Amino acid sequence: MAMRPAALLCAMLALLAALSLAWSVKPPPAGGLTVVFGDEPRTLDPAQATLILEGRILSALLEGLTVADGTTLEPRPGVAESWEMSADGLTYTFHLRAAEWSDGRAVTAEDFRWSWLRVMGMPEAANWELMKPVRGAQEFREKKISAEAVGLRATDSRTFVVELERPTPYFLALTSLMTFLPVPRTAIETHGRHWTRPGHFTGNGPFSLSEWCPNHRLVALKNPRYHAAPAVALPVITFLSVPPGPAQFNLYEGGMARWVADPPPDLVRDLAGRPDLHVAPRLGISFVRMAANHEPFRDNRVRRAFSLAIDRARIVKTNGAGQVPWAAVVPPGLAGYGGAPQPPSDPEAARELLKRAGGNLPKIRFLYPAQKEFTVVAQALQATWKEVLGVEVVLDRVDRKEWSRRRRELDYELCLSSWIGDYQDPNTFLEIFTGDSGNNQTGWGDAIYDALVKRAASERGETRMATLAQAERHLLAEGPAAPLYVPVTIELWDTKLRGISENLMGVHPLAGVGWGK
Questions:
Q1: CA 27, 29, 32, 36: dihedral to nearest 10 degrees?
Q2: Which of 415, 430, 439, 423 is nearest to 475 (CA)?
Q3: Quick one: which H or E segment has residue 314?
């Protein structure tokens, strides 16, 4: 059958784009590494970064108090060479090593204090809520107290004391996240929002920003001022900006990139058995957001009907990359957390709930990002809701930027979403649905749920975990999230690379990566 003119034109344009990309990619210097970690980073400001891609790049350019171990994910010494916690779990004292910024200035405790306060006070800070455990963080953000009243003290240039509102068992893990990275005050005050550009960027990580060609590549050179520079094996890392799709794999197979993170899931079937393919469970959950401030999803009976109608095993089969069907919000694998019972799919109960809610729904818009892996999931859900509930669901496929904007602005009725845990604790999945969380993005608020999450924050051990499980049960019964599955991390890396390990969070400290024999 002859190809239609429009299809032929699209195919030719795709081929030309792939060839142009291949021709423009320069081989790295001897011993260097070229990676494809995703599309273009939106920012290199840790206060505003949210993408996994951005976090991976920032971990090469900046170093926090701690660094997550690439195998166990346990916090290891970073700029802080040691620390102590008080007996009541409320005060951490970090002792900084002799470290320098890439411009030669010393990295000080005041740098961390200023950087953390900047996140707390910045209106556009993406994940400032992660700072909430610090005493006074919320009040400072609301301009109710001064910076001096916040529980952050630089008692001398190399001693940083952090006081918490309440014991936070995962606090040390937070200190390795990009939100908690130090930033160069001098560069920011001199260059404003342009401080992240090459020539302006000052870092303290194992690599220094050398080049950033938007929508093409970012180059980072080994930082000779890094405190452990002799142990950094790679002289340069080149990050290519390549949208998800076949071009990523083609660059890898062609030898132009030797590490690809999150290639298309359908590659798992095609490449099964290859030693350079790595597939591991991810600390995350894929789910459908339901806009609880829009009809018909103001009615919890409708929300429950849409969730109970889902055949999660069917959804997982659409990709076949090893995702785990999952009907709860908190994924498995978290020590000490039994979790809430997963409500089973129940088409009959779903139809009865919708009938009691009035039935006969108008067409429902289903927003999702324009990637093949999400398209097949959206299509499977569309078919399921039609078969079980008789509801006409219209697929609303947009680019990721538009998807993010509309999700934030609640410009949707249903929205395909996911959440990757920031740390290994159920709170990272439950806190996002509290009424005051900027990550809620559903229009849903529930006083009972908020009170349970808040109560758990003041508890410890088994009591805390039991309260969180109670909160999760309430969220599943009343909330705006229909869980789908536990995603997987899919990566391709050259078998000669060393210092990379599979783990729940896809964390790979680049300072330890190098070439073996």
A1: -30
A2: 430
A3: helix 312-317
Sheet of strand 481-486, all strands in order from the earlier edge strand to the far edge: 324-325, 481-486, 284-290, 414-420, 364-369, 393-398
What SS3 state is found at 492? strand
Task: Quote the tokens at residue 325.
Answer: 């069907």
pLDDT band at 28 (very low <50, low <70, confident <90, very high): low
Q: Using one digit for the tens of pLDDT, what is the confidence trace for 210-231?
A: 999 999 999 999 999 999 999 9
Instruction: Count CB-CB contacts under 10 A for residue 149.
Output: 12
Q: pLDDT of 388-425, one tens digit each? A: 999 999 999 999 889 999 999 999 999 999 999 999 99
Distances (CA, A) of 180 to 111, 187, 200: 11, 18, 20
314, 288, 297: which is closest to 366 by C-alpha?
A: 288
**Structure-model confidence comparison of residues 51 and 303, the more confident one:** 303
Measured between alpha carbons, how far is 98 from 101 in angstroms, rounded to an integer?
11
Question: Which residues partner with 335 through β-bridges?
Answer: none
Residue 11 has pLDDT above 60, yes or no: no
Task: Kindly give, in sequence order, each residue whose CB lies less than 8 Å from that of residue 270, ignoring residues fewer than 6 positions away.
Answer: none
Nearest to 235 by CA among 29, 416, 89: 29
> What one-character DSSP code corresponds to residue 512?
G
